[in-house]
Specification:
about 20% strand; 10 helices; six-stranded antiparallel beta sheet; Rossmann fold; binds zinc ion; single chain; alpha/beta
Length: about 325
């Protein structure tokens, strides 16, 4: 049985016929090209010929999606990584927050959609903002900062916020996990005040990293990523829901350099998928643990590659091809 992150992915032959799919949420196309198969799943990743949007097809039911998130996905006691990784991640996280809300006055009302264990909420509260979070998993949100108001709900709409309530909505590496991206954005538009902004950060399916890595791409994260957004698809979706794109950012120190290393390792035959990621999180893949020399080798590869891949991530960001992107839409 593969670990949480160890499901294998295969590229499908490029000459497979297109299949009928529910209308593309970004461009309404009704056909899509099967691109990848996922270990242990009937569903495939199919790609829209109109806007490049990837999706799981057929889309898993809500119940199936819930099964993709066992308790260990969220980490123990509100911690996701081993301490030596968790500390710098929190530092990088704090820098992120400054970037996300630097223009907001104290007391501004900010919503984190899919707030998980509440790392972002604490940082928002530290900056004197009114922090709100909505989360699907009650267990995940347990232990969130008491200064934040957290609602547990299966979808944003069901959290029941009033109209024009928030100054900013943040959807941080969550959008690709949601079954209905258009319904989510429509609800974001409703709860944002006019002129308020939504910040959406997702892996970039149109990036150089995604195209180079193909089935080995770290950020495919099967089966939890239900959608794989291209910049074109994001732009169209935001526009359709009255949140036209006003900014895009292509550099992420936290996500992009690591994606290069792990995607490259995923192309090495015989190495379990995402072995380095599992090693950094929990000390190693579950089931049969990797032998010590392999664990040491993985860590050595990561340290040696860190400098070059940070450089690579700077270059891809300059070319507006970040492996993950952060886009900003403003409510009309
Ligand atoms: Zn499309």
């Amino acid at each position: 049985m593969p670990g949480l992150y160890g499901r294998r992915v295969w590229s499908l032959p490029p000459d497979l016929p297109e299949v009928d799919v529910p209308p593309c949420p970004a461009c309404d196309a009704r056909r899509a090209r099967p691109a990848f198969a996922i270990e242990g799943l009937e569903a495939r990743i199919v790609v829209c010929p109109g806007c490049g949007l990837g999706r799981m097809h057929p889309m898993p039911t809500e119940e199936e999606v819930r099964a993709f998130y066992p308790a260990e996905y969220y980490g123990e006691e509100g911690r996701k990584f081993v301490p030596i990784i968790e500390a710098p991640l929190r530092l990088v996280g704090a820098r992120h927050v400054r970037f996300l809300v630097r223009d907001l006055p104290r007391g501004a009302r900010v919503l984190d959609v899919g707030c998980g264990r509440g790392v972002l909420l604490s940082a928002l509260a530290d900056r004197g903002l009114e922090a709100h979070g909505v989360e699907l998993s009650e267990a995940a949100a347990r232990g969130a900062d008491p200064r934040a108001e957290v609602r547990i709900a299966p979808t944003l709409a069901e959290a029941g916020y009033p109209d024009a309530f928030f100054d900013r909505v943040i959807i941080w590496h969550v959008f690709e996990h949601l079954r209905d991206p258009r319904a989510t954005l429509a609800e974001v538009r409703r709860v944002l005040r006019p002129g308020g902004e939504v910040v959406v950060s997702v892996p970039n399916f149109s990036s150089a990293q995604a195209r180079w890595a193909g089935a080995a791409w770290f950020h495919l994260d099967p089966p939890r990523h239900l959608w794989h957004f291209t910049l074109d698809a994001l732009r169209r979706l935001l526009e359709r829901e009255g949140l036209p794109l006003v900014a895009e950012h292509h550099f992420s120190l936290r996500q992009n350099p690591f994606g290069w290393v792990q995607s490259a390792l995923n192309r090495v035959p015989g190495l379990p998928r995402n072995a380095l990621y599992e090693l950094l999180q929990t000390g190693g893949p579950p089931g049969a643990p990797l032998p010590l020399p392999q664990r040491l080798a993985l860590r050595a590869v990561w340290l040696a590659a860190l400098g070059p891949v940070v450089g690579l991530s700077v270059v891809e960001a300059a070319l507006r091809s970040g492996a993950t992107v952060c886009v900003v839409g403003r409510a009309r």
